Amino acid sequence: MQFYQELTIQPGPEMPANFILSKIYQTIHLAFVSHKDAEDKVTYGVSFPEYSPEGDVIGLGRKIRIFAETEEQLEQLGLSNVLKRYTDYVRIKRIRPVPMHTSGYAIYSRYHTENSQAQKARRYARRHGIDISEAGKLFPKDKKGYQYPYIQLRSASNKHPFRLYVRKETANQPVNVGFSVYGLSNQSSVPEF
Q1: Separation in Å, CA 148 to CA 14, 32, 52, 62
Q2: Which string of DSSP letters, residue by residue, matches 147-163?
Q3: For the CA atoms of 62, 67, 71, 74, what is the dihedral angle to 10 degrees?
Q4: What is the enclosing helix (H) or strand (E) of 96?
Q5: CA-to-CA distance for 11 and 62, rounded, in angstroms?
Q6: pLDDT tens-digit readout, 34-82
Q7: Which of 47, 83, 118, 162 shows its CA 20 to 30 Å from the CA of 136?
Q8: Which of 66-70, 98-102, 136-140 has the lowest mean pLDDT?
Q9: Which residue stretches of the chain are H helix?
Q10: What is the pTM for the complete model shown?
Q11: How far is it between the farthest Cα atoms of the chain?
Q12: For the sheet containing 150-154, what is the strand order?
């Protein structure tokens, strides 16, 4: 990843940062969808420089960086045009080369939460033709799992809201095998600085 463009969320009294982040990320996701290949991969990776998985403020922060191999790829994405509805709520910096000296690399991936006890019991009851209360006894109580920061999005296909949990891991080297239409990957890394 040689070039990037940084977005900064600018909340107002009537629009909290998380709400704006959700709207902007939904729009970026749709822009990525329009640039996907036959394998549903895009050349754009995303990072959250203010990512905070623990402490008093768990969240993704107010900054998003979109990475690409070339300046032309970011120009084709056209973030200024894509996000023109949100000019009062987001500041978009010009496309820049990634600094020569970075602090390392990170992998931002989607985290799927474990199914709850109730979901597992319903599925088991449906598949095996037994009562839900009986199936519920077969599964232990839910354990409080690790909570990752998330973005609240809405499915374009069925219009249901969902949480896109984002996990960050450090990476030893740059790897680019493509990103999902959310700009996330289980293998590809982006520079950290």
Answers
A1: 26, 23, 9, 16
A2: PPPEEEEE-TTT--EEE
A3: -70
A4: strand 96-97
A5: 9
A6: 999 999 999 999 999 999 987 656 699 999 999 999 999 999 999 999 9
A7: 162
A8: 136-140
A9: 17-33, 71-77, 79-82, 117-128, 132-137
A10: 0.82
A11: 62
A12: 150-154, 161-171, 104-111, 190-192
Tell me how far apart the alpha carbons of residues 108 and 111 are, in angstroms, rounded to a whole number.
Answer: 9
The residues, ordered by sequence, that sit 6+ positions from 10 with a Cβ below 8 Å of its Cβ are 20, 62, 88, 89, 90, 91
* Cross-strand pairs, 170: 106
- Strand 96-97 to 190-192 pairing: unpaired
Which pLDDT score is estimated for 140? 67
SS3 label, residue 126:
helix
Q: What is the rounded distance in angstroms from the CA atom of residue 44 to the CA atom of residue 180?
A: 8
One-letter amino acid of 132: I
